[in-house]
Amino acid sequence: xxxxxxxxxxxxxxxxxxxxxxxxxxxxxxxxxxxxxxxxxxxxxxxxxxxxxxxxxxxxxxxxxxxxxxxxxxxxxxxxxxxxxxxxxxxxxxxxxxxxxxxxxxxxxxxxxxxxxxxxxxxxxxxxxxxxxxxxxxxxxxxxxxxxxxxxxxxxxxxxxxxxxxxxxxxxxxxxxxxxxxxxxxxxxxxxxxxxxxxxxxxxxxxxxxxxxxxxxxxxxxxxxxxxxxxxxxxxxxxxxxxxxxxxxxxxxxxxxxxxxxxxxxxxxxxxxxxxxxxxxxxxxxxxxxxxxxxxxxxxxxxxxxxxxxxxxxxx
Length: 316
What we know:
Order of helices and strands: EHEHHEHHEHEHHEHEHHHEEEHE
Number of helices: 13
Helix content: 40-55%
Low-confidence stretches: 271-287, 311-316
Number of strands: 11
Mean pLDDT: 79
Structural class: alpha/beta
Distance between the termini: 37 Å
Shape: globular
Number of domains: 2
Radius of gyration: 22 Å
């Protein structure tokens, strides 16, 4: 897989560095990973773009006024003309940026806005997969009937379109690959972020995972979780659904990975906490499965659920 070149201002490095760390060295051309102290920066930039298939411009007031970013933009435009780069994407991380401020050639590319490094990294990951398929189309072996079934079920003969996508199967047999292909080709959306739920997870744990994957840098998670814990169960659930809605609005399909925390083996939602159960000291622990279940029916966005292959999902 070719890399994604991350063009950014040094003033935006805290955000971009988190993106680079999420993706890893194998997927990004990032100055902290590539450049040595004595390198000729112009040659190093050209080399970074040469080994990349996707050019990512993190747009901000700082990057638009940076001479080095301008040099990288010029090199990227030249590489796109010669087709050594296949894609260019602008990720606006400054809310005051207007599309007219971008170089003319970049205005015709995809222009997105993210304040979460995790969601930006997910976007880049999907762009790298698309670029790889553009250069060397990947052969998807098998599951053609399952893909056909997906199309039939997602576009039924009735006016109601299902929005909860459930895929069952054993770990590491390709559930994510199948669902990702089905979602991209039929819905034009991207799968993720991924939220793990096991028997020990509470609503606070789900909230913390979502917060970590969708918040801008600088959020103090402990303070946010303390405020969340003080809410009623209904308010907590509404807060989680609102976060899922915000993520989905950016063309993602949030995906819950159920490790026996949401469903029993027979496919029913776990009954241990039918809403709440006593845990001592007069406190209550809420089962995130049964609580979230009551809200999912009203969701107007897509959610995905990966369940164990031994689980019969008859109650979904």
